[in-house]
């Protein structure tokens, strides 16, 4: 059997690391683009990396950057992948207000560079674009594939450009290019400054007596939070369909940041009022108030039905952060993982 090749931009991120693990478990040869940094930035993929001199190594890393067309072209040309997953991004919404031009360069123009590179290669490469529920912005919930977009940040505007360009290349050049419009998805590998992980890490640090307070911004914002490993499986499924299409992926539930704080503090038996403080610096110039997916299309076409919802997600993340802080986990999160995923393809953090 011929081994399929996948190329992942953003392989060192939360989703990229899970996706790489998933594709390796499916027998793929996985290529990832990593950025040169002065300290190691590969901690999420270290457990699946082997010395390239060893025989049969199927994970291969290449230095590159979405802001650098020449390198992207070389990698696409040399690797000749069957599938490309474009997950690389300056993905922090708040930060995109501080670095709007850079965010546009990587998220919007970076996608142009990749799509052009595929088109010019003349190869039949299936393309996945990591589109975002953030593109819905102020649109009334629930949000589906048919909801008009109303982006509220430089990040969202850049993602919307990349979304339309992906559609444009599909229609204009008959490319197999899909948009996965994913609602927020989290895990113990979530970046430390996104709100869920910031809260679960803080609770573990407070329990370990290493932190006194947790400073947050808008507690009223509502999000549809799912579990990242389930979301990367469905990225792959999109590229296995007969026809390229766009799909909304989410749980169909919404909860406020405050509810997440309550769930997490209750879980470890701490009183939130003693620890949680508000710092206006975490508010955004324009906020996305409510996101809720209408995931009917992905349920019917892809069979997507998330097994982890809000409460279980919070418990899984807290257990992992308690362990990382050198404490005994409460245990409910670990039990849920064992029960719901007896044949897990990813390493538990
Ligand atoms: P993440 O953890 O922030 O990972 C982002 C990845 O992009 C990292 O590997 C990062 O590399 C890489 N990257 C950043 N700038 C780059 C550049 N200039 N060139 C090449 N690579 C670059 O994000 P994530 O949560 O895994 O999300 C994956 C993708 O899905 C992103 O495009 C994100 O915008 C999108 N998305 C995420 C969610 C969500 O809830 N997680 C929802 C919808 C859409 P370093 O490790 O070197 O920084
Ligand atoms: N990060 C952060 N830090 N957010 C806070 C804080 C805080 O201290 N306090 C309140 N929030 C609120 C934000 O204002 C926002 O309404 C909500 O918590 C979620 O913020 P994030 O976790 O930073 O995620 P996001 O929704 O802005 O963006 C994430 O999801 C998008 C999909 O909808 C990112 O992963 C994006 O890359 C992704 O596209």
Give an overview of the whole structure:
45% of the residues are buried. This protein folds into two domains: 5-185 and 225-249, NAD(P)-binding Rossmann-like Domain (Rossmann fold, 3-Layer(aba) Sandwich), CATH 3.40.50.720; 191-223 and 254-290 and 311-340, UDP-galactose 4-epimerase, domain 1 (Alpha-Beta Complex), CATH 3.90.25. The strands form four sheets. A seven-stranded parallel beta sheet has the order 3-2-1-4-5-6-11, sandwiched between helices. The protein has a two-stranded parallel sheet with strand order 7-10. A two-stranded parallel ribbon has the order 8-13. It is α/β, with parallel strands linked by helices. The chain is 41% helix and 15% strand. The chain contains twelve helices and 13 strands. Helix 5 links the parallel strand 5 (126-132) and strand 6. Helix 1 packs across helix 7 (228-239) and helix 8 crosses helix 11 (310-324). The two termini are 33 Å apart. The structure holds NADP nicotinamide-adenine-dinucleotide phosphate and guanosine-5'-diphosphate-alpha-D-mannose. Guanosine-5'-diphosphate-alpha-D-mannose binds next to helix 3 and helix 6. The site of NADP nicotinamide-adenine-dinucleotide phosphate has 25 residues, from helix 1 and strand 5.
What tags apply to this protein structure?
alpha/beta, two-stranded parallel sheet, about 40% helix, binds guanosine-5'-diphosphate-alpha-D-mannose, Rossmann fold, about 350 residues, UDP-galactose 4-epimerase, domain 1, single chain, globular, binds NADP nicotinamide-adenine-dinucleotide phosphate
């Amino acid at each position: 059997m011929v081994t399929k090749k996948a190329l992942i931009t953003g392989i060192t991120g939360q989703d990229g690391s899970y996706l790489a693990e998933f594709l390796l478990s499916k027998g793929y040869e996985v290529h990832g683009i990593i950025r040169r940094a002065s300290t190691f930035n590969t901690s999420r993929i270290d457990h699946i990396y082997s010395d390239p001199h060893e025989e049969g190594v199927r994970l291969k890393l290449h230095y590159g950057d979405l802001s650098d067309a020449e390198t992207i072209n070389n990698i696409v040309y040399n690797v000749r992948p069957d599938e490309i997953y474009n997950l690389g991004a300056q993905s922090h919404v708040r930060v995109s207000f501080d670095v709007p031009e850079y965010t546009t360069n990587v998220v919007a123009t970076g996608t142009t560079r990749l799509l052009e590179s595929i088109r010019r290669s003349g190869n039949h490469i299936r393309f996945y674009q990591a589109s975002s529920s953030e593109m819905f912005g102020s649109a009334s919930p629930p949000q589906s594939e048919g909801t008009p977009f109303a982006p509220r940040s430089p990040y969202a505007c850049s993602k919307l450009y990349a979304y339309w360009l992906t559609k444009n290349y599909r229609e204009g050049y008959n490319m197999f290019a899909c948009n996965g419009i994913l609602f927020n998805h989290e895990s113990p590998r979530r970046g430390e400054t996104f709100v869920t992980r910031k809260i679960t890490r803080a609770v573990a640090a407070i329990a370990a007596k290493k932190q006194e307070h947790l400073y947050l911004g808008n507690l009223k914002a509502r999000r549809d939070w799912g579990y990242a490993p389930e979301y990367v499986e469905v990225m792959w499924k999109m590229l296995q369909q007969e026809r390229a299409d766009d799909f909304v992926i989410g749980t169909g539930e919404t909860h406020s940041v405050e509810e997440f704080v309550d769930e997490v503090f209750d879980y470890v038996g701490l009183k939130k009022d003693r620890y949680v403080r508000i710092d206006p610096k975490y508010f955004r110039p324009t906020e996305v108030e409510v996101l809720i997916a209408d995931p009917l299309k992905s349920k019917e076409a892809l069979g997507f039905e998330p097994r982890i919802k809000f409460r279980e997600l919070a418990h899984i993340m807290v257990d992992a952060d308690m362990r990382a802080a050198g404490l005994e986990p409460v245990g409910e999160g670990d039990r849920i993982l064992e029960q719901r995923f007896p044949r897990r393809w990813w390493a538990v953090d």
